[in-house]
Amino acid sequence: MIAARGITKRFGDFVALEDVTIEIPDGSLTALLGPSGSGKSTLLRIIAGLEMPDSGAVEIHGSDQTSVPPQRREIGFVFQHYAAFKHMTVRDNVAFGLKIRKQPKERIDERVDELLEIVGLAGYQKRYPNQLSGGQRQRMALARALAVEPRVLLLDEPFGALDAKVRADLREWLRRLHDEVHVTTILVTHDQEEAMSIADFIAVMDHGRIEQVGAPRELYDRPANRFVMGFLGPISELGGQLVRPHDIVLDLEPTPGAHEAQITRIVHLGFEVRVELALPGRDGVFAQLTRDEAQQLEVSEGDIVWLRATSAPVEASEPA
Amino acid sequence: MTVSRPWQLTMRVLALAWLLALLLVPVALIFYRTFEPGIGAVWDSITTPAAISAFWLTIEVSAIAVAVNTVLGVVMALALARGRWRGKWLMDTLIDLPFAISPVVVGLSLILVYGTTGWFGRDLADAGIQVIFSTPGIVLATVFVTLPFVVREVTPVLREVGDDQEQAAATLGASGWQTFWRITLPSIRWGIAYGVVLTTARAIGEFGAVSVVSGKVSGETETLTLLVEKRFANFDLAGAYAASALLAAIALLTLLVMTTFNRRREEA
């Protein structure tokens, strides 16, 4: 288990982390999810030993690592901008950690070839980083981090600098790689879709605190507060309560407890149909229907409908 | 900005004429005057014991100054680009001091500190070390005036490269020393090379500060620039031209190396 306990970190007057505690189960892929400035990267860098916390402790497999330098933490770290060693070939990049550990040459060559095979860069041994695409560079950086068989793999916005298509491919690939290699992994991201699609657990962070930790579905269905709910998906407010737009049912007749609303706009997004609604004193409410539901309902802009929520909503009055 | 064709040509001609009048003509004239009396006379003039001694002293002093300022320059550049400490701005300002102060003033201040009546002069003299009017003084003066070049070339390179690669090396188990040799040094090597060439050029050509502290003892503390000045003052014009040509030849060689390095640096 990787644990950070009571971590506080300030940069001048700015409080980056305030009394943060998190435990990460062995073999899991955990995402630290939050907006920029929420402290997620700082927490990752503290776990890596690249930053020192002002107070608190870092534990890896039960031993206190707080004052251990990054060199001896047995971690693998992947940076957003790859941090490729520009003057070295792909082979030398991946071999770096093994050469530092003075492994025999045959063993290094064997391991490098094996890793490049795993990350899909076999045959690129003699290339230099500037001859690779962004996605290839990041896969090389992953191979380099994995070469030393780290106890924990730390990824700091690893796909943040890549375009959307490559990013989506790489995150699926990362999940498959994780299932093969099984190294405990912590991923920092601000992209909720990325976190939801590959993480076993998500820790949602805001303003230097962890708001909630749990499995993606648990967080989505039972968010602890408005911030978590809003960060994981869209929300609509209905009679002082927060609901997911796809949990709103539209009726043409009044039903007990339903809210009257007028349809202001209907947007067809393929499978999903987005119905924008005007309620008395409330803007920005919309419902998500499937294409079939919308067709059966036969409503158009300007119609009056009655809204109710189908699943347990969260109280809007709760402080975020 | 778009400029019409005739204007472009005019500006080019003006720029070239300016360079020609200011640089090329004088340098070319020196070479012309040098070889006017014939190659044999030139050879004789630059192989006198005084000239040979001056040549080797210049090389020796430059080599020491370059070595010292390269090592210290990289250390200072690392402190400026990577360090987080109070008073960094002060060091940043002080490094430019040799550019701001006239070399003659540098020479005088060295005499004030190391001369026989200076702060350390007597103690050093008692220990049998003579700084002023001796090689150590010339080296000190040259080191001082050439101090900024390596720092000023390497610091921006370090900033641009960033510390991502160094941090990656640390997470892969490399010690600070290993990271410096395997990661930092290779990524700043062209910056260092360029700084070294600039330092060399300036060290070889230094006159003001060296002139004050050297004592100008022929065959002992006389550098090439001092030899040129002495011969010129003694109406030995042919000899002055020959020594100048030697200096100019070294300078041209450095310029050539510099251009090559600069191209490599821009490609890297």
Which stretches of chain B are poorly predicted, pLDDT < 50 over at least 5 residues? none
Question: What's the overall geometry of chain B?
Answer: globular
Oligomeric state? heterodimer
**CATH superfamily placement of the largest domain in chain B:** MetI-like
Name the shape of chain A in a single word: elongated
Kindly name the structural category of chain B: mainly alpha
What is the count of distinct domains of chain B? 2
Low-confidence stretches of chain A: none
Query: What spatial order of strands do you see in the largest sheet of chain A?
Result: 6-7-8-3-9-10
Describe the structure.
The complex is a heterodimer of chains A (320) and B (268). Helices cover 29% and strands 33% of the residues of chain A. Chain A is built from nine helices and 18 strands. Chain A has helices spanning 40-48, 90-100, 105-118, 134-147, 164-181, 192-198, 216-221, 226-232, 291-297; strands at 2-11, 14-24, 29-33, 55-60, 63-64, 75-78, 152-156, 184-189, 201-206, 209-214, 236-238, 241-243, 248-251, 259-269, 272-279, 282-290, 304-309, 314-315. In chain A, the strands form four sheets. Chain A has a six-stranded mixed sheet, with helices on both faces. In chain A, helix 2 (90-100) crosses helix 3 (105-118), helix 2 (90-100) packs parallel to helix 4 and helix 3 (105-118) crosses helix 4. The model of chain A has no long low-confidence stretch (mean pLDDT 91). Chain B folds into two domains: 1-36; 38-267, MetI-like (MetI-like fold, Orthogonal Bundle). The longest helix of chain B is centred in the first third of the chain and has 34 residues, at 49-82. The mean pLDDT of chain B is 90. Chain A binds chain B through residues 48-50, 69-73, 75-77, 79, 81-87, 96-97, 100-101, 141, 144-145, 148, and chain B through 164-165, 167-175, 178, 182-183, 186-187.
